[in-house]
Design a protein that fits this description.
Bound molecules: adenosine monophosphate
Low-confidence stretches: none
Shape: globular
Distance between the termini: 43 Å
Number of strands: 15
Mean pLDDT: 95
Helix content: 25-40%
Radius of gyration: 20 Å
Order of helices and strands: EEHHHHEHEEHEEEEEHEEHHEHEEH
Largest sheet: 9 strands, antiparallel
Length: 344
């Protein structure tokens, strides 16, 4: 019952397969014109220029708020926001020169990781530092292209696992969270996810939900937000947040009573939020680089295939598969064996 119009600078954007697609730069007059007769405008891509978001927000209802986008795009603002909200995060400092990096390492220690403040994702623009003597090398490896916006250096934490929590906040401030998701990466890219995270305790869930709620309240947020966390022996440290629906949350399509996508729409449209309950453990496997044969994927009992229709490219997310089982162990087992079969 809803009608959609999409704007993307890429004429082959996946959304074009299902609704009107206007090929335009986000900051262009065409993009502004496309938004004019919409009831609400949102985004599902984090690198939308904040200037375009602010301009749109002056003219139409634009949700989530551009400020959340602005903070999420800059690792220094993001980490500072975590600290201000009492959300635990690895120790970090802003650094703008190799000398500043050396001084910061004296306080933070090694191992550490140098990250470009802007435009880094899936481990891009990052460089590990295993000993102080390696700092110059890391600085050079991190690349001069990122240097104009500066870097942060942070403590490399020996986490047990990576988790994410998807939260949603409605226009009236109502907030709901999904059960914690456990994420498995390969080569810095999300490979597969399972929810509820194995060994999930009520306490872990409540700390993560509380952190997400603090972020939502801070921005007077409306829509879906994702917080990525490191689990260090039961202590949760925030890595970053995404002001949008999230790859790890794709498992909510079949796994939850209301998917993250539907809840995002409900939130920005001012409708009541849907239940975030996960009746059965659910999993998601990313299809990366090349698209496997469809029949092979669909052979797996209960598997649902999503093909984004994108051209194959190393490291590119081309689609995903979701499935549900009676136990998280069974989900993990299925995801791991499917991944092994695809890697062969
Ligand atoms: P990011 O782009 O910040 O999400 O980082 C990509 C991946 O690098 C994360 O998913 C972690 O696996 C790893 N990573 C990033 N920061 C840290 C850190 N401070 N300590 C340990 N691992 C990290």
């Amino acid at each position: 019952g809803l009608a959609f119009r999409f704007v993307d600078p890429d004429a082959s954007a996946s959304a074009g397969a299902i609704a009107e697609l206007i090929r335009a730069e986000y900051t262009s007059a065409e993009a502004m014109a496309a938004a004019r007769d919409c009831d609400v405008v949102t985004f599902e891509f984090e690198n939308v220029p904040v200037a375009a978001a602010r301009e749109l927000a002056r003219n139409v209802m634009f949700l989530p708020p551009p400020e959340a986008l602005e903070v999420a795009q800059d690792r220094l603002l993001e980490k500072t926001c975590f600290v201000e909200l009492g959300i635990e995060t690895p120790r970090f400092e802003a650094v703008a020169s190799p000398e500043e990096l050396d001084r910061a390492l004296e306080r933070i220690g090694t191992p550490a990781v140098l990250k470009a403040r802007r435009q880094g994702y899936d481990g891009k623009g990052q460089s590990a530092i295993d000993a102080p003597a390696r700092s110059r090398q890391a600085w050079e490896r991190a690349g001069s292209s990122a240097a104009e916006h500066g870097f942060i250096v942070e403590q490399l934490v020996a986490f047990e696992r990576e988790l994410s929590i998807i939260a949603v906040r409605g226009r009236n401030g109502e907030t709901r969270t999904y059960p914690l998701i456990e994420n498995h990466h390969a080569g810095g890219i999300l490979s597969f996810s399972v929810t509820p995270a194995p060994r999930l305790t009520a306490e872990l869930q409540s700390v993560a939900a509380d952190y997400a709620a603090r972020l939502l309240a801070r921005f007077d947020y409306v829509g879906v937000l994702t917080l990525e966390l490191f689990d260090v022996g039961g202590r949760l440290l925030a890595n970053e947040f995404a002001p949008r629906v999230h790859n790890s949350g794709h498992l909510t399509i079949e796994g939850a009573e209301t998917s993250q996508f539907e809840n995002h729409l409900r939130a920005i449209l001012g409708f009541p939020l849907g239940s975030t309950r996960v009746p059965r453990p659910a999993g998601m496997l990313n299809l990366i680089g090349t698209m496997p044969e469809r029949a092979r994927l669909l052979e797996v009992d209960g598997a649902h295939l999503y093909d984004y229709g994108k051209a194959p490219r190393a490291g590119r997310k081309l689609g995903h598969v979701t499935l549900c089982r009676d136990t998280t162990d069974a989900v993990l087992h299925e995801l791991e064996s499917s991944k092994r079969a695809l890697d062969e």
